């Protein structure tokens, strides 16, 4: 399927199921680029929902993936730096027992910030990610920073 949406071209194969694709190809990933703007977060979330929905993950897992990816995208918009093209990148990569979400921006990485107060309405995104994911972390690259999170997709 190829469609144009809000200035983007979306290409997806909806005939692939995650487990079958992983077994057949060994690895399958989807990468998307978004403008570093607040309006990009809901767009990223909707496209991520569509991709992982096509991979036929269970609905509760799709919701967890959406939430984690949304938190990472929000951090890229709020705290990251835009690439030369003004974008941040999202990569979804199924693994044999899980899904890896990566969000890359041109920023230098984490900055020490004070812990949010008990009444604060924000500032807990990475705490949420750490509680929902099997593992997560940050990698410095020559182009900036990649924040990644891995969720289990199997029940065994």
UniProtKB/TrEMBL annotation:
InterPro entries: Anti-sigma-factor_SerPK, HATPase_C_sf, HATPase_dom. Keywords: ATP-binding, Kinase, Nucleotide-binding, Serine/threonine-protein kinase, Transferase. Residues 39-149 form the Histidine kinase/HSP90-like ATPase domain. GO terms for molecular function: ATP binding; protein serine/threonine kinase activity. CDD domains: HATPase_RsbW-like. Signal peptide: none annotated. It comes from the Bacteria. This is ATP-binding protein. It comes from Streptomyces sp. Y1.
